[in-house]
Amino acid sequence: MSFESLGLSEATLVAVRQKGFETPTDIQREVIPRLLSGGVDIIGQSQTGTGKTAAFALPIIEAIDPKVKAVQAIILTPTRELALQVADEIKSLRGRKRVYVYAVYGGQPIGPQIRALERGTHVVVGTPGRILDHIRRGTLDLSSVRFFILDEADRMLDMGFIDAIEAIFRETPRRKRVLMFSATMPPEIRRLAGRYMGDYEVVSVSSDELVPEMVDQEYVEVVPARKFTVLKKILDGDFYGIVFCATKRETRELSEKLRRQGYSAEALNGDMSQAARERTFWRFKTKRTRILVATDVAARGLDVQDISHIVNYSLPMTAEDYVHRIGRTGRMGKRGRAITFIMPGEFKRLRYIAQVAGVEIRKSELSEEIPKEYQERYEHGRSDGYRRSGRRGNSRYSGNSRSYSKNSRGRW
After folding, report:
1. Same fold, 3-205 and 210-393
2. Is the pLDDT higher at 105 or at 304?
3. Can you tell me the distance from the alpha carbon of 11 to that of 62, in angstroms, rounded to the nearest whole number?
4. Distance separating alpha carbons of residues 286 and 33, to the nearest angstrom
5. What is the C-alpha radius of gyration for the chain, rounded to an integer number of angstroms?
6. Topology at the third CATH level for domain 210-393
7. pLDDT for position 153
């Protein structure tokens, strides 16, 4: 199926071609025609990197009336980074149509945001807290909204945004299209849909799109004292990617250690100011920085093309976190490589993650022989607490309407 067969106008198709899109992804094939034809609301099960932003952005651009100087679409995101990226993506897809898009989020002065909203904006993308702040100040009017979108709905529920989401929803007209995009389908999503959506369809992309098939996945078993040495072997190749760490402190220490040895590396974590995070991300996106050392704040929403490697310097806690991390590479038809470091005693936890995610992770040639005393120490000292951590990554829900899904079987 081509973009031409989805019902998009020629002006929008020109913008799509200029972006370099050739064929629609699964979520785009299912969502775009349904939004263009009107009718029921939609829940889309899809992760960042599967093209979901274009799936809802293209029909919204088609529907926006530029002559109406009012907010016609509101898009809520869990993080500032994702709000900025969604806004940028919509701008890149609008072509010559005068659709004004603006991102609002905390951590920035509110004055410029107020002035931008006063000038007239058709699409507002933002985090729930700052959106609600503008509503209460009287600087954001949602009475003309035709589209209400929750992006990464499960993440927003995890972060405790439910009250803010409901308060924002009450400020919108009764008649509108409601869309929710979620990587997983926990019961909270169903309850939210039952409360605020009418008849709706669940569109679920295939498992091999949730976990990119273009990513070669491997693990390296290594003792802690050797992790940095092994990491350098990976970085010494043609590396442009993200090294994920467990803590903010580790990102700072590791990035500084890499810089001292001549690597182009920067840290990205939640302790940084929003302005500092945006500058760091911009340098990485423009390849002025080749190595981003990050916590999971970078796992969701960072949309960067051409990332060659993802390194899990610390094993993620859940299968969902693992999938979100490795989803930063292996995109747009290009192969990627994801390498996960495990310490002695973490093999069972890695195997569990692989089973839940439905993926195959092979042993890397970089793995080292582990001394027997290390094996015994770690295997007796570590617990199986991971069995209690986040089975959400394997959630499945088929809503009160039709569900579109294709299952693929992963193996260990």
Report:
1. yes
2. 105
3. 9
4. 34
5. 22
6. Rossmann fold (3.40.50)
7. 87
Query: Rounded distance, CA 215 to CA 328, Å?
Result: 10
240-253 pLDDT tens trace: 999 999 899 999 99
Residue type (1 letter), 350: L
Segment among 270-279, 299-308, 379-388, 398-407 with least mean pLDDT: 398-407
| Mean pLDDT, rounded, for 209-217 | 71
Lowest mean pLDDT among 29-33, 137-141, 150-154, 328-332: 328-332
At which residue do the structure tokens 């500084």 appear? 256
Any alpha helices (H) in 201-305, and if so which ranges?
207-210, 227-235, 248-260, 274-285
Q: Are 383 and 333 in contact (CB under 8 A)?
A: no
pLDDT at 289 over 60: yes
Token pair for residue 303? 């949309």
Tokens 């903010």 map to which residue? 248
Q: How far is CA 402 from CA 30, 59, 84, 267, 358, in A?
A: 12, 21, 32, 44, 24
pTM of this structure? 0.62
CATH superfamily, domain 3-205, is: P-loop containing nucleotide triphosphate hydrolases (3.40.50.300)
Tokens of 170: 């009450």
> What is the DSSP track for 33-57?
HHHHH--SEEEEE--TTSSHHHHHH
Helices and strands (DSSP H and E) totals, the chain: 16, 15
